[in-house]
Amino acid sequence: MTEPQNPSQTKPRSKPITQPFWLDPFPVMFPPTNIAMTDPNGLLAVGGDLSPEWLLLAYSKGLFPWFSEDDPILWWTPNPRAVLMIDNLKISRSLKKTIRKGQFQVTLDQNFRAVMEACSLAPREGQDGTWITEDMIEAYCTLHEKGHAHSVEVWQESELVGGLYGVSIGKVFFGESMFSKRTDASKVALVALCTQLKAWDFNMIDAQVTSNHMLSLGATEISREEFEQRLIADVQQPFPPKKWVFNVDWQSEVA
Q1: C-alpha to C-alpha distance for 115 and 162, rounded to whole angstroms
Q2: pLDDT, tens digit (0-9, with 9 covering 90-100), for 204-218
Q3: Which residues lie closer than 8 Å to 143 by C-beta, 6 or more apart?
Q4: Is residue 31 a contact partner of residue 44, using CB atoms and an 8 Å limit?
Q5: Which of 5, 171, 185, 233 has the fewest CB atoms within 10 Å distance of its CB?
Q6: Which candidate, 43, 47, 8, 15, places its Cα nearest to that of 28?
């Protein structure tokens, strides 16, 4: 999961494709992840499309798409993998203080498209453009409409000032990106999300690639093999696709 303002927290840049597994439009299937390129970024395959069928299969196998505007669709499986075990979430004293002040209001699935667009527009120092293209936005909005993709919105005086989005399958949340227009806004989004996910008996958030931002919040690295083992168990946990709403008082839980 990335916060675009910090260049150390962005997904890897595309590299020249020398050994890709090329995917045909049909059937919808991926090769085994153990044939991923030796690069730790884990480029596995090229092609397919961004339909719900391809995206849901990809995430269920630990893959995610990332590509620049002029690239073909690239599918990645990093090794090691950054994950946040929800019980390991770190909330600093200063962040708790911010939450207790009540200066932010947090919602779930109230404006998914706006969160994605804000993530796509957030400046990336040292980078031009964004991997969150119009095609990506439309694809994930379709997943959202089907109850598989979700957003956390952070508001201040009716202005959207932070948030995050990702994909949920079973009881795993696959974080994609986050943004902040106010100090700590994205951290507040993550704390609120983790509090709700814990109440739903989720164990893990996939953070994809390591970032200082996520490490400060308790994320860690595990091997691809361990990640896939955890994934197999958790994506099979029953949790129907639906629009998300808070059913816990997350601020009281944190305070």
Answers
A1: 8
A2: 999 998 888 899 999
A3: 52, 55, 56, 149, 167
A4: yes
A5: 233
A6: 47
